[in-house]
Design a protein that fits this description.
Blueprint: H1 15-24, E1 40-47, E2 58-66, E3 77-81, H2 87-93, H3 95-104, E4 107-111, H4 130-133, H5 138-152, E5 163-168, H6 170-181, E6 188-192, H7 207-219, H8 223-237, H9 241-250, H10 260-276, H11 293-298, H12 309-324, H13 345-352, H14 376-387, H15 395-400, E7 411-416, E8 434-439, H16 457-484
Parallel strand pairs: 3-4, 3-5, 5-6, 6-7, 7-8
Antiparallel strand pairs: 1-2, 2-4
Helix pairs in contact: 5-6, 7-10, 8-10, 8-12
Length: 485
């Protein structure tokens, strides 16, 4: 998705609110960009409501353009469908587009999603209440993209250009849906790590956490087993003031623990984030991390699960510090925060509470986490408490067709074997023009990152296949456009 965002909002610690935070809003937690790039920033007047006529206001949608390699009229446009965060972060971290721009002679456009970054429909009031948030939806965002592209193609130099939608995670979902809903606007879509089936009735609610567990199982001997037994160890130690003090010291926490649940929810999110960014080289996507960070984490958890609680949790603390303090620069760890601030946490909360209902559950048997069932009613009640709205559980299936996508065309669905979001992805090609690309050693949208000397062959092959298909789409679009003249 891109990958997960910096959350400053502190919620109450009920199990269901934690489920809301950790299960549904972890798709993209941006950190510092790995590479600086050169682009120009523009703003476009978008309608606040594309589907009604009472709200006639407009807002400034930010978009970024890089045309260094776009030297010929009619050359293609690679259009990034912005995620739930600041578009500059995605621009800086979607290296695939920058790597292929010269080969394709492509203009790069990165469009910011409404209600994120600087693209606020009601300015400072955009998040003030449900009335102002009412226009935050994937449907409105897709319409923004379509209208923006229509504007960009008003020039004779671009009006015949093939537009290829590209996105990762939620942005990948949008890229796929963009091609489905607006096939006359985009010639094709690369949807990387796009869990378009992570919705009610489409996949098992436990698949996400089973993949996380598998990653740690492969990471080292006893790694997942020790995490599995750590939850009860935390319960036991946190039952006394002395135990809470010991845990606070051992984990180098900035503030003393008052209950074990806070630590457990923080650790659960940590293990998930590590699974998503288990890249084969040093990276700075969510946090500064070593190559294959799960293997490094698991070096601290190789002992027998039968060790005493304090010895066990001492290893868990060292493992967690690989994620939060690999550089050794942090003086303490803040368990109320798990990422940085480039992502709009509250906006994604609202989207999950309306249309992006993604069931998640654990059973403690097939996964290494404590059992937690999916309770839609409890989730709905939390949403109503926060926003005064209730989710429409089946809306994604109604709006985008669920698994009935075979009638669509020209979409690449790429997924990685290490990425927990792949459980909700399209893993088999539904047709000749809906192509599933599998990357066994790939974490979250590894194929959208910059080329790296440590990339596994599987991701290099995936990128080569993706570029070859995109070239075909561009030729098809050119031929179709020529016939219309």
């Amino acid at each position: 998705m891109t990958a997960l965002f910096g959350f400053a909002l502190v919620l109450s610690c009920s199990a269901h609110v934690f489920a809301l935070k950790s299960h549904l809003f972890r798709q993209r937690v941006p950190g510092p960009a790995d590479t600086d790039v050169d682009y120009k920033t523009y703003y476009f007047d978008q309608k606040i409501d594309h589907f009604g006529f009472l709200e006639n206001g407009t807002f400034k949608q930010r978009y970024l353009v890089a045309d260094k390699h776009w030297h010929k009229e009619g050359n293609p446009i690679l259009f990034y469908t912005g995620n739930e965060g600041d578009i500059t972060w995605f621009c800086n971290n979607t290296g695939f587009m920058w790597d292929v721009a010269e080969e394709l002679g492509a203009m790069l456009v990165f469009a910011e999603h409404r209600y994120y970054g600087e693209s606020m429909p009601f300015g400072a009031e955009s998040y003030s209440d449900a009335k102002h948030l009412n226009y935050l939806s994937s449907e409105q965002a897709l319409a923004d993209f379509a209208v923006l592209i229509r504007y960009l193609k008003e020039s004779p130099a671009t009006n015949r250009s093939a537009v290829i939608a590209i996105g990762g995670s939620y942005g990948g979902m949008l890229a796929a849906w963009f091609r489905m809903k607006y096939p006359h606007v985009v010639a094709g879509a690369l949807a990387a790590s796009a869990p378009i089936w992570q919705f009610p009735g489409m996949v098992d609610c436990g698949v996400f956490y089973r993949i996380v567990t598998d990653d740690f199982s492969r990471g080292g001997k006893n790694c997942d087993a020790n995490i599995r037994v750590s939850w009860k160890a935390i319960d036991k130690l946190s039952s006394t003031d002395e135990g809470l003090q010991w845990l606070s010291r051992e984990f180098s926490l900035c503030a003393p623990l008052t209950k074990g649940f806070d630590l457990k929810s923080w650790l659960q999110e940590t293990w998930v984030n590590l699974a998503m960014v288990d890249y084969p080289y040093k990276a700075n996507f969510l946090q500064p991390l070593p190559a294959w960070p799960i293997k490094v984490v698991c070096e601290n958890l190789r002992f027998s699960p039968e060790v005493p609680e304090q010895e066990l949790l001492s290893g868990v603390a060292k493992a967690a510090k690989v994620y939060y303090n690999y550089t050794g620069e942090a003086s303490c760890l803040n368990i109320s925060q798990s990422a940085t601030g480039n992502l709009g946490m509250m906006g994604w909360f609202y989207q999950a509470c309306t249309e992006m209902v993604m069931p998640m559950c654990t059973d403690g048997v097939k996964d290494m986490f404590e059992p937690q069932e999916w309770n839609f009613q409890a989730f709905s009640d939390e949403c109503f408490s926060m926003f005064g709205v209730r989710p429409r559980a089946d809306w994604a299936a109604v709006m985008y067709g669920g698994k009935a996508i075979a009638s669509h065309s020209n979409i690449i669905f790429s997924n990685g074997g290490l990425d927990p979001w792949s459980g909700g992805g399209v893993l088999q090609s539904p047709s000749e023009s809906l192509v599933a690309v599998w990357i066994p050693e790939g974490a979250h949208h590894l194929d959208l990152r910059y080329n790296n000397e440590y990339d596994p062959k599987s991701v290099l092959d995936a990128r080569q296949q993706e570029v070859a298909i995109i070239k075909q789409w561009i030729k098809q679009w050119a031929a179709h456009t020529q016939r219309e003249l």
